[in-house]
Structure formats: structure tokens, C-alpha cells
């Protein structure tokens, strides 16, 4: 069945065309993001949700999103998405990190000039026939200091534009390296120094608990008298009441505000302040940027839904379209190994070690580890998937270790998964042959070669003659048909393992009967 995608915010028609052309059923409801009840009613039918900033993807909405696999943000900020809850539910959240950055940087520069030359107010006055030439005295930008808070994609474009305008640029960004600052031609400074030195301050950080209220009354007090403040990033970065007071007092000479704590902003404390220029979250609103983000989000979501390729996800490692098909059998193997170990693990899991050897060591092992963790935890948590598994493992304090060895052993590729519990370590290993089929090749250090079917019996016993015949007879008498039978032992007369594929799940009576056989040490029904 074709996957279904809902677009709940205004997106360029390009997105609709791409989804359709790729065989995805698409519902375009550009105003749905504003109607959370209707959205909650509809969301259950969809595999994908494409949004901008108006749709709020809350935990309540996600509760109803039973089929959702991917949320695509046609833009950058995902503060309107509850990413931790989406991750726990196994829903990928992806954005388009570059599509609108130039446009947004240009908006910040436009705001700087609009404020410095009071263009909006001068326009209103002029069109009212007032010709107030002396009222609108401006500020020259050349040689002034531009303070950039957050010097990532957008901040660095703003910095470059600032330098192009002959400004001196200082930047505060804890993740900005000295080399990158040099390359950009900006001076890396601490926040207080930026506040002290900048004539114009512009913000380009995401909204996080660290950046919320970064510009409040105390910060403004450290700034130059007559500073200009520009916010084209997120509403919560500035305490609106404090900015209003500073505009009223003249401490801040002017502000350009594109984003608000509450959006749509209908009745904001800032409105009506002197020399305030506002726009309704227009940072990304150019046809060029909207084409970019619509095209990119639709391609990324379609890739994921149709091929499993992952690009620009915030909660999952990337998997390219080329590697997705190559990775699939290994992901299946990793998940089967995890599932095998998970079904045999009864006491508290402390850690998991994944060893990748040969060709597979050069693949995207993070994605394979996620698949292994999914298999491992599924016996406990039905809804876990490769998106949620690493987060759940972390939350539960399960230590995950990855070892990669590129040299080949007896097999071209080899994955060994070891679970570490309070009581013991247990390993299971497998490979993918050239037929693309995963095989288990070692259980607890005992070699064998088994393809895992849907229903399996796992039996450990003492290696003595006559056991296999008795096991076969017991299963036959119980009406259980054997599909495949795989054997291994550590030493002659030592510990032996049978992995038996059966056509139907083993009943409790069958398990009891097998358990009662002489020499049996453990019997377990496994399902894959
Ligand atoms: N007004 C609008 O329409 C638009 C607004 N935005 C906003 O702009 C933000 C930035 O976008 P990009 O530059 O693409 O993101 P980015 O991730 O490339 O850059 C953000 C920078 O902020 C820095 N940062 C993080 N925490 C910080 C802190 N506590 N103090 C100082 N710097 C910190 C990071 O190190 C990073 O370099 C987005 O998160 C979004 O909220 C983005 C697009 C359009
Ligand atoms: O990309 C971003 O972070 C933006 O803020 C753009 O928002 P929008 O898509 O225009 O609602």
C-alpha cells in the first residue's frame, strides 16, 4: 500500500508534486496546523507529516499518531516538535538545515537597516503626506560593531554580510572554533563582552533551555546605550517585557522582531513601542527558500518512507539512498541477533557489545547497532524501533559498546552481539552470505549455521547419543512439523545446542515434553 503523507502547513506545491510523482498519497491541508483538534482526529491515518512552524507536534498529538513514521520540518527550527516523545515512539524527525538560511540571514540584515533608518515609520509618514525629513534621523552602519549570538549556518551568513557592509563582527557561540572564527573573519568573544561592545546585536541560536531568555533586563543593562537588537531566530530568546521597557526608556534605540513568544502574535507587549519593526515570522518567507525547503523535505520524507534512507534526521543517524539497500540484510541480521539474545535474557540487562568484523565494519554501524538494540528490546517493549531503541537503552542505563575490526576472519563479514547482565555475558554471532540471507553462526561460542524462521525452538542439552532422535520423536508425536534442524556443540560430550525451525509456535505442552527429555538443560520458544 502506498504510504500516506499529510501536509498540515503552507508548503510550496512542489512538495505535493514530489510526493505524488513518487507514488505517495498526499493530503494537503495548509491550515490544519492551526486546528489542533481536527489534526489530532486525522493524524492516525498517516505515515508522514510535513510541517512548518504553525503545526505544534505535542505529546498529545503523537499519542494519536499510531502509524506515523516520519515528521518532516520544511525549515530549520524544531522547537514546535516534541522530539523526545517522537523518538520514544520511534518517529523520525527531520528538517532541512540549509534551505532557508540565506533568506533568513537576509531578513536579519533587512531588519537591521529598517530599524537603523526607521524605514517603516518613515514610509507611513511619507505616504500620509507629512514629509517629516527631520524626524527620521538614522544611524550609519559602516564601522559599527555587529554582535552575532549563535554563529551557525544563519549567524555566519549574517556575519559575512556584516563584514561586506564594513562592520566589525564579534560572535558568541560556545561551539564556534577559533579556526572557524578566523575563517569567517569574526572575533570570538564571551557573551558579556559582546553585550558591552556591540552596536547591533542579532540572535541566531535555536531556542533551548540554555538560550531561553538570553536577552533579559540584566543582559540589556550590560549593553551600550542606543543599541539595536534584532531577533529573527525564536521568540523565547528575548524577554519581551524587558525589551519593551528598554525601548520605552531609550536604552535600546530600536529593535527588529520577526518572532514572538506566542505566535501568531495578535496582542504582544512589544506592539506600539518606539522604533520597533515587526514582521510576522517572515524570516524564511521568500519564494526561493520555500521552494528549497519544500523540495528537500518532500524528497527526504519520500526517501525514508520508500527506501529507508535517512537524511537530516535529528534523532537517527543518516543512511544514504545508496547504502540503504546494502544495509538492509545486515540490519535484519543485527535485529535478529538482538532479538535472539533478548529472548534468552531473563535478568537485568547492563550492557550490550556489538563487534563488527570484515566488510560490515566499514558500513554504517550506528544504524546496525540501532537495529540490534531494537531486536534486543522488542521482547520487552513491543513498539520499539531503530529510532527509539538507542534513546530507550540510554534511558535505562544500558551501556552500548561498538567495536569495529576491518580485517576479515573466516567470514567476509561477521557481527557478534554480546549481552552483559548481572549474572553473565552471552554472545550470539551471525553473517550475511552472498545470497543476502542472514545466518546465525555462533551461539555462546558454539558454531552452527542457522537461518532463523518465524518460529524456533532453542534447546540446550548434554551431547550424548540418542538425544536428537528422542527430540524428533517427541516433536513428531506432538504433531509439530520440523522445517529445519541445526546443531552445534562445544566439545564432544560437552554442551550442545539445537535450533529447530517449526511450522507453528510451540505450545506449553510441547515445551514441557521437550524439557522432560533426559539430557535437556534448557528449552525456549523463540519468535522472529
Ligand atoms: N525567523 C525565521 O523564519 C527562521 C528562524 N530560524 C531560527 O534560527 C535558528 C538558527 O538556525 P541555524 O543557524 O540554521 O542553526 P545552526 O544550528 O546552524 O546554528 C545555531 C548556532 O547556535 C549556537 N548555539 C547553541 N547554543 C548556544 C548558546 N547557548 N549560545 C550561543 N550560541 C549557541 C550553535 O553552536 C550553532 O552554531 C534556528 O534554530 C531557528 O530557530 C531559522 C530559520 C528561519
Ligand atoms: O525554519 C525555521 O526555523 C523557521 O522559523 C521558518 O518558519 P516557517 O517555516 O516560515 O514557519
From TrEMBL:
List the catalytic activities from the record.
Answer: (R)-2-hydroxyglutarate + NAD(+) = 2-oxoglutarate + NADH + H(+); (2R)-3-phosphoglycerate + NAD(+) = 3-phosphooxypyruvate + NADH + H(+)
Q: Which residues form the ACT domain?
A: 456-528
Q: Which domain of life is it from?
A: Bacteria
Keywords from the UniProt entry: Amino-acid biosynthesis, NAD, Oxidoreductase, Serine biosynthesis
MF terms from GO for this chain are: NAD binding; phosphoglycerate dehydrogenase activity
Recorded family membership: Belongs to the D-isomer specific 2-hydroxyacid dehydrogenase family.
Reported EC number(s) for this entry are: 1.1.1.95
Please report the name of this protein according to its UniProt entry. D-3-phosphoglycerate dehydrogenase
Listed GO biological process terms: L-serine biosynthetic process
InterPro entries under this entry? ACT-like_dom_sf (IPR045865), ACT_dom (IPR002912), ASB_dom_sf (IPR029009), D-2-hydroxyacid_DH (IPR050857), D-isomer_2_OHA_DH_cat_dom (IPR006139), D-isomer_DH_CS (IPR029753), D-isomer_DH_CS1 (IPR029752), D-isomer_DH_NAD-bd (IPR006140)
The major lineage groups are: Bacteria, Pseudomonadati, Pseudomonadota, Alphaproteobacteria, Hyphomicrobiales
Q: What does this protein do?
A: Catalyzes the reversible oxidation of 3-phospho-D-glycerate to 3-phosphonooxypyruvate, the first step of the phosphorylated L-serine biosynthesis pathway. Also catalyzes the reversible oxidation of 2-hydroxyglutarate to 2-oxoglutarate.
Record PANTHER family: D-ISOMER SPECIFIC 2-HYDROXYACID DEHYDROGENASE FAMILY PROTEIN (AFU_ORTHOLOGUE AFUA_6G10090)
Hey, which pathway is this one from? Amino-acid biosynthesis; L-serine biosynthesis; L-serine from 3-phospho-D-glycerate: step 1/3
What is one Pfam family matched by this protein? 2-Hacid_dh_C
